[in-house]
Amino acid sequence: MDAKEIISKLTLMEKAALLSGKNEWESRDIPRLGINSISFSDGPHGLRRQEGAGDHLGLNASLPATCFPTAATVANSWDESLGQEIGAALGEEALAQNVDVLLGPGLNMKRSPLCGRNFEYFSEDPILAGKMAASYVRGIQSRHIYACPKHFAVNSREYRRMAMNAVVDERTLREIYLTAFEIAVKEGGAKTIMSAYNEVNGSYANENKHLLVDILRNEWGFDGIVVTDWGASNDHVEGVKCQSNVEMPNPGLDSARELISAVTKGEGRITEEEIDRAILPIIEAAIYFKDNDHTKGFDIEAHHAIARKAAIQSAVLLKNDEDILPLKKGTKVCLKGPFVDKPRYQGSGSSQVNSTKVETIRQQISSYDLTVVDSPDKADVVLFFFGLDEIAESEGADRMSIDVPEYQIKELEELTVYNKHIVGVMSAGSSVKMPWIDKLQGLLHGYLTGQAGASALLDIITGQEVPTGKLSESYPYAYSDCSVVNYSDQDKRNLQYREGPFIGYRYYDTADVAVLFPFGYGLSYTSFEYSDLNVSDKGVTFTISNTGKRDGAEIAQLYVGKKESGLIRPKKELKGFKKVWIKAGESVNVEIPFDDKTFRYFSTVSGKWEIEGGEYQIYVGASSLDIKLSGSITKEGTISELPYNLDDLPSYKTGKVRNVHYEEFEKLYARPLPEEKVGDLDINDALCQMKDAKSGICRLVYKILKNNLDKSYEKGVPDLNTMFIYNMPFRAISKMSGGMVSRQMVESIVTIANGHFFKGLGGVITGFFKNKSANKKYESRLYHRE
Ligand code: BGC
Question: By the 8 A CB rule, do 433 and 454 touch?
Fold first, then answer.
């Protein structure tokens, strides 16, 4: 039977049930028609497959899997073939562990260095993020598994992530926040997409017609499954109408009942045809996965080796004064810092992997030709392993600062008393401030290396391997230098993206703000020269020569700018890149083609991608600030009408966007900005808003949550469940409770929070019994027990 035939045999009850999850990780099955559940699992850099009882953030351990370096790390390799190899290994592990859809990669834009999940995302640049994400998708899907790029879209912070509205102008939305997803869908061929928790311009991502229907389905031609982030569904009927397919995890059958009543009770909100359309990709997927062979296992050692290779090719050498690295054979080293015995190699939250094994520096060092001494004054070189603690980077919470913890810097300062030859080896999944960098002679940044990080880093330190990574994000001197510094509005629902397109290097470069390390920066043990740029209609060609003594790899970057323009524009933007391996003394010809994204901009006049006519500057660089070659090309325009008069947008014209006024942003936004809601709590307010609730009980619940949160910060270990609950809206109680709580009950809980205790309690009690009996009745009819 094909999918359409199966759909014709389903009852409305079965159809409605198929559109939400059966348990934490599976969609519903319909055994009478041979439709199996689809099984979902995190995660983006290693499987987090829970056997037995699943829980959202992994209190129950998951099956052992390879922990690869995180996305933020692998992005520094700028190597799509590496991404594809990791993806294929992830796909193999998914297959071995009975998983159909792997919930990754994560590719939200790094708008601010404070986002707690930056370690899971690729870059501040959409082209780099999109190309890397597409490579993972191709790899994962080559193993007959669906990849699921997430979180679509504009989910660039953790604080109140389920109860916030990203307010972003249309052109910035398209060019910065959606382009990476577009590449993952169109070039990667992603078969699943996860809709984000937040609202985008006033409607939840999962019921956002503009995002899901106009753009994802109609413009990009996506024909796969849209799955909600866990607990992200708000109005299920609206979601299904917008062609979102599966609400996860398990809202009980309340959501299914909502759908049925929307079809049958004359509400006219949705038709059965619309439901059929939403079911189609689910049935197609169930058929596609049906014959997957889950008996083969995977090669633990081979995958460990891929993790090691990925960590080597992604590490970035940031400083190397007097060529302190690589260390010569027999160098006397002293190992210091918190991560010598306890590596920090992955982040916290839903992406956390139960690794098949984890290397440590202490164990691995004996395999290298170095002499380890105990005291720093007896060493030739001190290797200082440091970086961000676990609590600093986690799903569910944003970072409080971009500082490395004080206790580590104190240790570093003490070491300088005994030895001036210190090489820092850093672990952190996002950018940090480095006022202490002068205390180091060398700095190797491993990011979050995955389980094989220790040997990978030692390979580079000892020169068995050359460093080849370059930064996929900028390193500002301080957080106050970032374009978004005044736009974090922690306590408001509406988060205005007033900086427009100017995030990361697009801002620093255009507004002339100095950075410590620019986007695209990284050193090598060899050196390169660029020459012979040729610009044609097809793209650029040029030559790179390895002028040093070692074989190595260079990452060449193509940027495009337009000095004379009627549009808001960053000085230049990345449009392509290539990592090339070159033997010492040799040269290679490099070609970076132009594509449909090289000259395009999104016109809010035509509602389409257009090209502005005139001369464009073409730059080839070793980083965003180290331009080696430049040329130009003239393009014919596709439209002459411009969306605004640039003189009305002075901050955007210069890129100096740190203090944009409300009125200026409103002009860019081109419609009235949303007002903050005032008054009583409602089901879409976050639980942390109970702080000022009328009900004393709710204020007490808030205090308990806050207390638990503070304690976890004191301990330095993230309490994931508390973080999740603290930021989630009341509505999510019904979405995350496995059918125990209905929406009606949640509404009654909110009534209690607003000070009407007895009325609310009555609603909760009657709602409980009503929901229980309705669920039971539905279950037995669904599985034909009555
Ligand atoms: C995260 C997703 C993850 C899902 C399932 C959510 O909290 O945002 O990235 O895939 O949980 O664990």
Answer: no
Is the C-beta atom of 723 inside 6 A of ligand 1? no
In order, the DSSP letters of 50-67 are --SS--TT-SSPPPPB--
In this structure, are residues 317 and 468 in contact, taking their beta carbons and an 8 Å threshold?
no
Indicate whether 52 pLDDT > 70: no
Residues in Cβ contact with 344 at an 8 Å cutoff, skipping those fewer than 6 apart:
338, 387, 388, 389, 390, 427, 428, 448
Whether the CB-CB separation of 570 and 506 falls below 8 Å is answered with yes
Closest by Cα among 160, 156, 197, 71 to 736: 197
> Nearest C-alpha to atom 3 of ligand 1 is from which residue?
350
Q: For the chain, how far is it from start to end, CA to CA, in angstroms?
A: 26
728 CA to centre of ligand 1 in angstroms: 13
- Determine what percent of the chain falls in helix, strand and coil, rounding each to the nearest 5: 35, 20, 45
Two structure tokens written together for 435 = 């006022």
Token pair 């005139």 is found at: 614
Q: Is the pLDDT of residue 288 over 70?
A: yes
Which pair of structure tokens corresponds to residue 15?
């159809």
Determine the residue type at 349: G
The strand pairing partners of 591, in sequence order, are 541
The residue whose two tokens read 């290539």 is 578
The mean pLDDT of 133-159, rounded to a whole number, is: 97
Question: What is residue 54's predicted lDDT score, i.e. its pLDDT?
Answer: 61
Token duo for residue 500: 């427009």
Judging by beta carbons within 10 Å of its beta carbon (0-12, 13-18, 19+), is residue 512 exposed, middle or buried? exposed
**One-letter amino acid identity for 79?**
D
Q: Does ligand 1 have an atom closer than 6 angstroms to the CB of 120? A: no
For residue 48, give the ligand 1 atom closest to its CA: 12
Pick from 162, 350, 735 the residue to mutate for probing ligand 1's pocket: most ligand atoms within 8 Å of its CB.
350
Q: Which residues pair with 558 in a beta bridge?
A: 576, 620
The per-residue pLDDT for 443 is 98
pLDDT of residue 238 exceeding 70: yes
Q: Which is higher by pLDDT, 198 or 489?
A: 198
Closest CA to 447 of 422, 414, 470, 420: 470
Say whether pLDDT at 372 is over 70: yes
- Give the span between the Cα atoms of 545 and 335, in whole angstroms: 36
Reduce the DSSP state of residue 468 to 3 states and report it: coil
Please list the residues that pair with 544 across neighbouring strands: 530, 588
**Does residue 150 line the site of ligand 1, with CB under 6 A?**
yes
- How confident is the model at residue 55, as a pLDDT? 65
Contact 409, 436 (CB under 8 A): yes
CA distance 194 to 211: 12
Q: Does pTM top 0.70 for this prediction?
A: yes
C-alpha span between 740 and 192 (Å, rounded) = 28
Index of the ligand 1 atom closest to the CA of residue 42:
10
Contacts of 465 (CB under 8 A, 6+ apart): 312, 456, 459
- 105 phi, psi to nearest 5 deg: -80, 165
From 50, 57, 103, give the residue whose CB has the most ligand 1 atoms within 8 Å, as the site to mutate: 103
Model confidence at 62: pLDDT above 80: yes
pLDDT confidence tier of residue 425, bands split at 50, 70 and 90: very high
| Pocket lining: 229 vs ligand 1, CB cutoff 6 Å | yes
Strand partners, 632: 617
Which of 24, 42, 59, 62 gets mutated to test ligand 1 (max ligand atoms within 8 A of its CB)? Answer: 42
Whether 780 has a pLDDT exceeding 70, the answer reads yes
Is 456 a residue whose pLDDT tops 60?
yes
Tell me, using a 6 A CB cutoff, whether residue 169 lines ligand 1.
no
Distance CA 8, CA 470 (A): 53
Dig out the tokens for 729 from the structure. 């809206």
* Catalytic machinery residues: 229
Q: Which pair of tokens denotes residue 692?
A: 């000022």
